[in-house]
Amino acid sequence: MHQVADNTRTCTMTLGGGSVNFREGETIYEVAERHRKEVPTLCYDPRLEAFGACRLCVVEVEGIRNPVASCTTKATEGMVVRTRTPVLDKHRTTLLELVASENRNTKVDSLSGYASQEFGNLLDRYPVRAGRFAGKKSGTSNTDDKNPFILRDYENCISCYRCVRVCAEQEGDHAINVMNRGFHTQIITEFNNDLRDSSCTFCGQCVATCPTGALGDKKALRAKDTPGEIKKTRSVCPYCGVGCSVDILTKGDRVVGIHPAMDGPANEGALCVKGQYAFDFVHHPDRLTKPLIKQPDGTFREAEWDEALQKAADGFLKVREKYGNHATYGIASGRAPHEAAYTMQKFIRATYGTNYIDNCSRA
Length: 363
What we know:
Layout: E1 2-3, E2 9-15, E3 18-23, H1 28-34, E4 58-61, E5 68-69, E6 80-82, H2 86-102, H3 118-125, E7 150-152, H4 162-170, E8 176-179, E9 186-189, H5 205-209, E10 215-217, H6 218-221, E11 230-236, E12 245-251, E13 254-260, H7 273-277, E14 292-294, E15 300-302, H8 305-323, E16 330-332, H9 338-352, E17 357-359
Parallel strand pairs: 2-6, 16-17
Antiparallel strand pairs: 1-2, 2-3, 4-5, 4-6, 7-10, 8-9, 11-12, 12-13, 14-15
């Protein structure tokens, strides 16, 4: 081992038959992910504290009698780890059969949420007999919850608690929690009320992390029967100047949903309720598609951009000539990016020589 610039030691271990480097403090799972060694999981989200609940990520470690959960076990110098063996495959297949036997749907529409396909993809990867352990089921769906954004289909819940943990650890809302144990386990709000009556801010993070579609995106699922393939387009949320990255879901020429970009530099997978769900304005019939110029009789007529911009410039000049530089006051929009705010203040200070400029985000 040797020292690196940040004083974290770089160590060596054997992973899946090959020698790999890792930094002291990393878990086996983190090392495996970085070196692209297949280790399945259902309760893991890289943004959350490792939980070790699903036990799918267990690996064999030389010198340790039983398999260990790779997401909670630290890698150590010289460790020899096997990520896939016949015993591990049988163990994972049996666990998946237990979970699949209890779920109403093992295939859900990808519009349900960002991670909604994780469970189904694992069932396709392993030789699972979905009805092998069929019997008593847990989780009662709350289809009566009238909130317009989040589907609470708990018959597909596998008690991974990712939704509860992301609400607490990432959002700090603690709007949902776990009630009871065993087959009576249920995800609830305080006093088991509707989400609208809880501290939920409808950020959609619980939906984004759910691996089974037990929590689904109601607005996106409106388009599940719409013909066409789902296309993802990376963009930036227009609602404020933070610059959250989003993946816009479209079918044909229609926006049908929004996924948070987990690799977004400003948001790292987080969105507010507007960024997550307020996209209907894109196709609203009242949305302006051309500039409007006010007429002497108070009505508006459509114009091209060159004419509209010239009209605005003439108006600014007329006001300055008649009333002076201090007659114009600029207020930049909090929905605009930093570049637009900079341009706005530059326009006021350079054109009028004043500091009559503010930003609505200041309030």
